[in-house]
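Entry:
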Amino acid sequence: MTPSVRRRPLRSPLRRSLAAGASAAILAAGVSGVGVSAAHAAAPPAAGALAGALAAAPVAADTGARITAEQKVGTRAVDITINSPSLGRSVKTRILLPKNWKRGSQATWPVLYAFHGGQDDYTSWTRSTDIEAWAAKYNVIVVMPEGSDGSYANWYNYGRGGTPKWETFHTAEVRQLMERNYGAGALRAAIGNSSGGAGAMSYAARHPGLFKYAASLSGVLSMRSIGMPALLMFTNAGNGQDPFAIWGIPWADDANWAAHDPHALAPRLRGTGLFFSAGTTGRPGPGDPNVAPWDIGLLSEIAVGANNKEFKKRLDELKIPYTAHIYGDGRHNWPAWIREAQSVWPALMKSIGAQKV
């Protein structure tokens, strides 16, 4: 099926200043960059407060995280600002509400969490895909939280812990705020692209039962494969992070790396519906830009595809059911992810009992 998506110019998937170095690192190590995203476009214009404005005293999360602002940005789209103790700052989350949603209702709705890739933000999915149209066909709440370049983890910080705690923010604070203020129910699924896909799969494994279904689109699903730690460190350093603060120092802090690695955590995924996809050839796919063979988005997807094959082999060894689409041509970018998201969308909706409207 041909994706119905607004045409936008694409940007380089990693910062231009890093492209040459990243290409050399990938060719040397045989690994992939993560968190590549589409070009930023203007966010939908604000349309005033949601009908029945933000409750005077929204219910806080257990950590004390609270909603401090709400703004309508589309027909059923709302941006909220969350003051998060787990992050030590305020960030935004975008919510798509179903047509039959009413503030103050005692009803609950199934929920899909959509996580974005690196060098991107909470507007990613609505800016780069037609997720609003996909969601409008179902009685589902879609939650798109800010993930920054946090790698979907509570940072190790050389064993000291502390902020930022992105995993706690997503799996506890955002979840509780959605459930206590927007009628989000206990039937949940997750989807993510690039580092967001790795996050969706890692969260599903680290919190068995949290999600009925987890879908990864070009996510790194075997973090400790040969060469992959080096590329993850390189990518996070390029994002302005201390690369050793996130999961620790590779090998020296291997236990913490393993505790976040979907490959190592695979036995904990039994009982969760699984989908993962990635390209393998390093050639452009349908809708991809015409770029040079050494383009970072092409080179990175080769390694991501090989990485997904390793994850697939692990699930086969454990006899854990899954659906995988390890395709050939396709760049590490939104044209490929749109196709894969549309393909898995019905399974995501079915897993959480989201009915068509």
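The first strand starts at residue 66 and ends at 72.
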